Amino acid sequence: MSALVLRNWEVTVLDSLETRVHGSTPKPVLPRGVRFLHADVRDKSAWERALEGVQIVFHQAAYQDYMNDYSTFFHSNVVGTALLFEVIRQHHLPIRKVIVASSQAVYGEGQYQCTTHGLVLPSARSTERMQRGEWEVRCPQCAEFVQPLLLREEYSNPFNQYALSKFSQELAALRLGRAIGVPTVALRYSITQGPRQSLLNQYSGILRIFLRRIKARQPIIIYEDGLQTRDFVHIKDVVEANLKVLETENANYEAYNVGSGQRTTVLDYADLLARKLKTELNVRMAGEFRVGDNRHSVSSIDKIRTLGWGPRRSLDCIIDDFLTWINDLGELPSDIPDAEAHMRAGGIVQTTNATNPA
Question: For residue 143, is pLDDT > 80?
């Protein structure tokens, strides 16, 4: 939004101000001159109001988190997106481009290489295996361990409710966009972090969760063995990716990964944060796991590099910028939900039955 205002664009924001993201008394911070509509993407009339005079749509709205209200994921992420294109078509709106925020989650358990059977797109790890402390992925044919690959756009394999809804959203956007002649692009974000991310959202809070526990002199809770790998990307790099595909005709009707392309284990992430806070790393690893978590998720960014985009900010920069922002706030708010307690109550966090999980 700020990047668009700096370009002297007239900007309209449509946001439902979801309580789990914005809190019970939301106070959106908007640049001067931005038109704001407090409404829901599931409301067709909200789209009709929001799209008045609009030429470009950056569709960032999403319902996410570790929630079991499956239908809400599809109503918000898929039906809400279909309504966008329905309104464009019915009102013959002169929309020049739609850019939809998708997710790395569409890859499910990911992409692996078996030395015998080649490319493997495994099913989600079963709760039974996780309860035995079997973290790593095996080939479904020979049961040998397989090596994780960087995730490529052509192999989607979603499993959970969020992933399924985001992949369905992509299909709806790209195909409806083509059907009505509105150039559309889907961007599959890796874990996006940086200043001004929600301090309340249970889903996107590894940095906030770890920071809170360190400042409270509590051990960081590490699930599985901490060697699962993730891909973190700075919010400013994500903004630049959005602007790049906006300006690039070759991007139309395609899906692109937006990430760092760099593997980071959860343990390494925790260690880096502790070192930046000049404190000794204190972790609790008790063979616990989260139902539905994938083992390795690191995206290939080869495809979007062909458009001239690449990440310019490291994980160090992500953490530094976040800590600077928190310091400017004065301190972490005291009413941040306890994500771990929330997930335990929902049966998402479970404990292995293994003596020595591996």
Answer: yes
HSE-up of 81 (CA within 13 Å, CB side)? 31
Does this model's pTM top 0.85? My answer is yes
Q: How many domains, the chain? A: 1
Burial zone of 85 (CB within 10 Å; 0-12 exposed, 13-18 middle, 19+ buried): buried
Residue 296 CA to residue 113 CA, distance in Å, equals: 13
Q: Rounded to the nearest 5°, which phi and psi values hold at 43?
A: -100, 110
As a residue count, the chain comes to 358
Domain with 333, as residue range(s), is: 2-351
User: What mean pLDDT do residues 123-143 have?
Assistant: 94
pLDDT band at 283 (very low <50, low <70, confident <90, very high): very high
Strand, helix or coil at 188?
strand
Using CB atoms within 10 Å of the CB of residue 270, give its burial: 0 to 12 exposed, 13 to 18 middle, 19+ buried: buried
Give the pLDDT of residue 13.
96
Q: Count of CB atoms within 10 A of residue 298's CB?
A: 24
Q: Tell me how far apart the alpha carbons of residues 276 and 261 are, in angstroms, rounded to a whole number.
A: 23
CATH of the domain at 38: 3.40.50.720
Res. 66: pLDDT tops 80: no
- The pLDDT value recorded for residue 82 is 98
| Beta-strand runs (E) in 53-105 | 56-59, 97-103
Which of 123, 137, 47 is closest to 84 using CA atoms? 47
Q: Cα(326)–Cα(140) distance, rounded to whole angstroms?
A: 45
